[in-house]
Amino acid sequence: MTAHALVIGGGIIGLSTCFEFQDAGFEVTLIDPDPISGATHHAGGMLAPTAEVQYQQQALVPLMKESAQLYPDLIRRVTQYTDLPTGYRTEGTLLIGADRADAQHLTELIDYIKAEELDIEALTTRQARQLEPALSPRITKAAAIDGDHQLDPRLFARALFDAVLARGAQHVRDTVTTVTTIAESATHQAVTLNSGAQFEVDSSDVIILAAGLGAAKITGWFEGEHPLQLRPVYGDVLRVRVPESLQPLTTRVIRGFVEDRPIYVIPRADGTVTIGATSREDQPHPRTSAIHDLLRDAIRVVPGLEETEFLEATCGARPGTPDDLPYLGQVRRSLIVSTGYFRHGILLAALGARTAVQLATGQQTSPAIAPCDPFRHATSTLNV
Ligand SMILES: Cc1cc2nc3c(=O)[nH]c(=O)nc-3n(C[C@H](O)[C@H](O)[C@H](O)COP(=O)(O)OP(=O)(O)OC[C@H]3O[C@@H](n4cnc5c(N)ncnc54)[C@H](O)[C@@H]3O)c2cc1C
């Protein structure tokens, strides 16, 4: 009998997980009331293990590196099952500084990146402007990261969704409330939905809890306080369209610092540009001052953005954890947790999805996931 994977959550993590389970021969059911409506809908889509390196977060580096290496093959396999575009682009990333203090910051960051054995090439500002003539002549520092790529998360998630449906996945439009062990059989679990419907899962099947921030509301599988300490970290993000006469404004992702504020400018194949992103924990709506700051900083780095058509400002909630690492692990034989991907869920989706299959099928997983134990912040225990 074919084993069954029941995936809770249809953001980038749940959808890529569905795809990998299908590749491993599982029948897949996806439960989500509104797929691609969470963080994935708002994300920039940088696949940037190098430019996104953060100080004091060494445990993230191997996860990011490994997942970036898995991406080309994931894209290749997904596009065998769908004609929808993914927005995947491999032209690379330029890291830039806007003023003298930003140049100093970048010099230190480049040293740190090299110490982490990631590839980065310092450029003169003139070399950077030869590569991307739309960059401001006033930039103070630049470096090239050819291995940092990008995709359009909305497009890629839709392509994944299309691919998993084409391969026979069942989609249930409902919200999961609890995952419980069935009392008379310690090996069987029940997934209960808002509508009252229930799925029974036996020990040869697997449930994957991939509901982003929503995972913190799914109860029943632990005793005591919720083990997943998820919190929303909001990010404002903007989209503009470049007039045809100026296209392409840039071909690489421009990642930089303007008076110490981070900014990115991501060019898409359809002539639009994504500008992001803030990071704040106050309220979930696009904030006027954030929109102002992002536009001002982006225009300072790429002045031609002034000529673009403004399309949208949105605000998404990153599923944050206390140590910025995901919750990724098998909490019982047929229950896997895969959430809390915070700032890097688009990049880490390839590794997260592959790892879930490896856990479910008893294969060796990457040593990089060792610090991601879903119970590492818990005062609670597993409900058996
Ligand atoms: C502004 C911004 C910019 C970002 N930029 C980048 C970037 O450039 N690169 C990068 O790698 N990452 C980036 N991220 C982070 C990335 O978007 C997230 O880490 C990633 O999207 C998380 O994916 P997810 O599938 O876990 O969650 P989500 O995309 O939030 O999806 C969760 C899904 O679960 C469903 N759900 C919730 N509760 C339930 C339930 N009880 N039952 C059933 N379904 C449920 C929801 O409907 C939703 O569809 C960014 C995030 C933001 C907000």
From TrEMBL:
**Family annotation (Gene3D superfamilies):** D-Amino Acid Oxidase, subunit A, domain 2, FAD/NAD(P)-binding domain
Task: Give one Pfam hit by family name.
Answer: DAO
Does the keyword field hold Oxidoreductase? yes
Q: Which GO terms describe its molecular function?
A: flavin adenine dinucleotide binding; glycine oxidase activity
Q: Which UniProt keywords apply?
A: Oxidoreductase, Thiamine biosynthesis
In the Enzyme Commission scheme, what number(s) does this protein have?
1.4.3.19
Which InterPro entries is this protein grouped with? Answer: FAD-dep_OxRdtase (IPR006076), FAD/NAD-bd_sf (IPR036188), Gly_oxidase_ThiO (IPR012727)
Q: In which pathway does it act?
A: Cofactor biosynthesis; thiamine diphosphate biosynthesis
* Domain FAD dependent oxidoreductase positions: 5-358
Q: Which reaction does it catalyse?
A: glycine + O2 + H2O = glyoxylate + H2O2 + NH4(+)
Q: Name one GO cellular component term.
A: cytoplasm
Gene Ontology BP terms? thiamine biosynthetic process; thiamine diphosphate biosynthetic process
Domain of life per record: Bacteria
Q: Does the keyword Oxidoreductase apply?
A: yes
Q: Known NCBIfam families for this protein?
A: thiamin_ThiO
This chain belongs to the protein called glycine oxidase
Native organism is Corynebacterium casei UCMA 3821
